[in-house]
Structures are given as C-alpha cells and as structure tokens.
Amino acid sequence: IKMNRFIKNHFSSLMTDYRSLITILFLTSSFLILTTCDSADPKVQITPVDTTSHNYTFQKWEFGEHSSSVLYDVAIIDENNIWAVGEIYLNDSTGEADPEAYNAVHWDGIKWGLYKIQFFTFCNQTNTNSYPAKSIIAFGANDIWISSGSQITHFNAVEQIKLECIPVSVKKTWGLSSNRIYAVGAIGKMAYYNGTQWEKLILPAGTENLDIYDIKGFEENGNYSIYAAAAKRTVNLEKKILKIEGTKVAEVPVTGIQYSISGIWGKPGSIYYAVGGGMYKKKEINSTEPWEGFHEGTTRYYIYSIDGQESNDIVCSGSYGELLHYNGSSWKSYQPETAISAGALLSVKMKDDMIVSVGYENPNAVIIIGKRK
To answer: How far apart are the first and last CA of the chain?
Structure first.
C-alpha cells in the first residue's frame, strides 16, 4: 500500500513537471520561430531589377526605284538630325534609271533628304563619283566623317571639307573627336587618325585573314577601353576580339564563342557582349573565363550590330528584320514591327529614347526609327 502511494504521488509529480516542460518548450520554440522570421525578412526581400521600357513605336521608310539599294550605317546627332549612308538608286527626271547612287540620307525631323557625297574614282585623282558609302561617324551637326572603300571625307552637312585616301578599306569607324579616329575594315586592317595624318596599325598575326566589322570605345572613369570584332562571316568560324590602346593592338580571349562575330558592345565593370552567329556575354572581357552563349531562346537570326547606353538599355539588329531590345531583365523582339522578310538590318544605334536601324528589304534600302513612350 505504501509503495502504491509512493508511485502514485511520484508519478503525479512527474506528470506535472512534464507538462511544465512541454509548456516551456512550446513557448521557447514559438519565440525562436517568431524571432527567426523577423530577422529573415530583410534576407528574403527581393530587390526589383532596374529596367528600362520596351514600349517603342516604329516608323519605316524604304528607298529605291531600280537595282538593289541598301544602307550600311547610321549616326544619330539628335532626334531631328540623323544621317545614314549606303547606296540608293533612283530614276532621273526623265524616268530613266540613274546609274549614280545617292550615298547618304538625312532626317531633319520632318523629311528625308538624299545626297550624293563625292569620292575619287581612283585615289587622289581628280575624277569623282558618288560611290557607295559604308560607314559614318558624327561628332556634331557640322562634324561628320563618311567613308567609301579606302577613302574618307570630312563633311560639315553642307559641303565636303576634305577627301583623302587612307590605308584601310573601311567597314566601320569610331572616335572621340576629329583629332582621334579609328577606322577598321577588310583583310584585317586598322588605321588611326591623330588630327593630322592617318597611320596604319600593326595587328596580331592571323588577323590579316579576317575582316574587322566593328570597333567601339567604352568609357570608365574618364578613360576609354577600345575593342574591335574580327571574323570571316559566311566563310568560316574564325574570330578575334582586339583590344586597342593608343596605336597598339592585342587579342583578348574568345573561348566560348562558337561562331563568327560582327559586333561588340560593353559597359566596363558590368558586362560585355559579342554578337554575330550567336549572342555571347561576359563580365570581364580580359579574363580567361569563357564567354556565355545565350542566343537560344533569344533569337534564331544572325545579329549584325549591337549598341547600348547602359547595361539595362541595349539594342541589336540582324537578319530578316530582327530588332532586339534588352531592358535589364528581358530581351524583346520587334521583328513583327519591322516586317522585313527578304532583307536585314545591318546597323543599329540608340540615343536617349530613340532607336534607328538601317539595312535593306530587297530591292530597297530601309530605315526604321523607334521611339520609346
């Protein structure tokens, strides 16, 4: 009997202690959960991606009445001052085909005006003609440089200031001013203008087998990093990316880039892009890390040109009227708006809330302007 009372009393005490323990554990765990959730809130909050608007409206113009017209390059001075160059074939006043091309067009905010910029028939000879123009760079409304073959002219929007031959068949030009211009082109040639004379630059071995399709400089802390894209598109898969420092040229790694390239753009310290047979990106262009391809799911067309203002405001143009915009989060295609089924957009530039792209819709030359709402 005594033993039974002992067990009963002891068991009752144990149960009381057990219930107290359970209560303490419950309260402790609840407190821990609540405090953990409170402290975790800042960690699980997602910072919104800084994006720009995809909301563009487009206008399209076509030029040409005979033969095959095309525009190769474009320069935006402002929304009411745009130049594009190429070859546009129209009929003369009698309705007959004019064999001499218009090689420049200008937008004044209301209409397009056509020009016949003159180039030598043979270098440094007196005879001239409006031969097809391939590249344009504008430092201001009255400070424009246009190339045709291995000639380049300085143009003030009214008349040609000078015309000279240079040691490269030009495909693209880039510069900071009329005293610092780079020209790149066929068979791996590059030249530099210092405001007085043109100098041919020595390029790495193997570049002479390629064409240089693009050159751009990217500013960082007041200094410019300059890069060029070289390849032999439609011929083979060889490619090089060249770094230019003054008059010295070196290669940077292209590991990871599978196909030929036509364009390059970057934001130092943020991202670099190379485009062509695919689209590739890399955070640090000089590192040995491979380029990352991302064209699958973005586009299935060849990309000829890329331009940008910030890492969240980039535009590309390519075959069959492909026109892409990156807003910092996603790529959007405006190919339905360009409505090009038998041609390509060969060059694209952007400034503020404007995109301008040029090329051809066989047999006419094409200009497309997009304005962001």
So the answer is: 94
